[in-house]
Amino acid sequence: MNTNDTFSFEELSPTGIHWFTDTIGIIICPTNIGVIAVDSIEEKDSKDIYLIDSGPNKDIAEHIYSCLQKQFPKFKLKTIIDTHSHADHCGANKKLVELTGCKIYSTLMEKSGIECPLNQSAVAYGAFPLPEYLSSYYLAEPSTVDKVIKSDERFELNNSTTIQCIALPGHYYEMIGVLCTYSKDEKETKVFFTSDGIFPRGMLAKYWIPFIFDVGKFKDSLLTIKSTKADFYIPSHGDIYTDMNALYELNMLSCLENENTILTSLKNGPKTFEDILKFVADFNEIPMRLSQFMLVGSTIRSYITYLYNSQKITWFFKENKMYWKLKT
User: Fold this and answer.
1) CATH 1.10.10.10: which residues of the chain?
2) 257-326, CATH topology level
3) What SS3 string covers the chain?
4) Is the pLDDT of residue 305 over 60?
5) Confidence at residue 328, expressed as pLDDT on a 0 to 100 scale
């Protein structure tokens, strides 16, 4: 059952593509894929297709291609706009390029990760990663970015459909969201693909500490999403929303609680990073495994940097160990 701010399609599309408007749709996957289809200016009765992200691997690439084949008698996949360089968003690029010859667009700081996927696990781990962190979950097949776009780039595809990139850094370096607008009969419908700029309720229920690279920018991006008017909001994972107010509050609560938990851990005296990580994991009843140690651990480091920059904590060394303490 939908809540008041979520949306689902009344019936499943046999092609696998669900449409919000005549030109803007979605392929619902573990990573939701945006589909924009406009009449080709080069070939009669054909569609030019633009994708927002590609998903994690070649199996998803083949699924996307099959959906397009079922939906359109003739089409050309022109471009994939990668919102950021995490493997679950760009891992299908290579196969789709092989199948269609499409181009890949991304922002400058995400380009390096798309072309050198090792960056994802290396950044999270903080060094050359353990072999367990070199699985396809972290390590996409590399693909070449054909065009670097600005985080506010705008594309007018035809008289009815525009694509507006919106800067949403924080989850990763120069991540973007994509606001698609369809105009017909003096009415506009806006569909905002928010990437990992905001996390849906189901994901936060499972992972209360989602991966964040820059906490301050992530919180700013939450406000950007909340302030951007749209008819539909599409986080990359999970539900479709029609209103962002409650979800914004939940995501902010996650940030504030994680900050407060770190500060609470230091009330009884200085702690090392691993002491803090254990306190936070115990408080949230997170069973620490290799994957959690890297992703949660990396995120806790980001929170520590944010609190340090906010003048709430500071560090010192004792007996060759780095300790964190409340700033007085």
Assistant:
1) 257-326
2) Arc Repressor Mutant, subunit A (1.10.10)
3) CCCCCEECCCCCCCCCCEECCCCEEEECCCCCEEEEEEECCCCCCCEEEEEECCECCHHHHHHHHHHHHHHCCCEEEEEEECCCCCHHHHCCHHHHHHHHCCEEEECHHHHHHHHCCHHHHHHHHCCCCCHHHHCCCCCCCCCCCCEECCCCCEEECCCCEEEEEEECCCCCCCCEEEEEEEEECCEEEEEEEEECCCCCHHHHHHCCCCCCCCHHHHHHHHHHHHHCCCCEEEECCCCEECCCHHHHHHHHHHHHHHHHHHHHHCCCCCECHHHHHHHHHHHCCCCCCHHHHHHHHHHHHHHHHHHHHCCCEEEEEECCEEEEEECC
4) yes
5) 87
The pLDDT of residue 167 is 98
Q: Cite the residue boundaries of each domain of the chain with CATH code 3.60.15.10.
A: 6-253
Q: Give the per-residue pLDDT at 2.
A: 58
Enter the CATH code of domain 6-253: 3.60.15.10
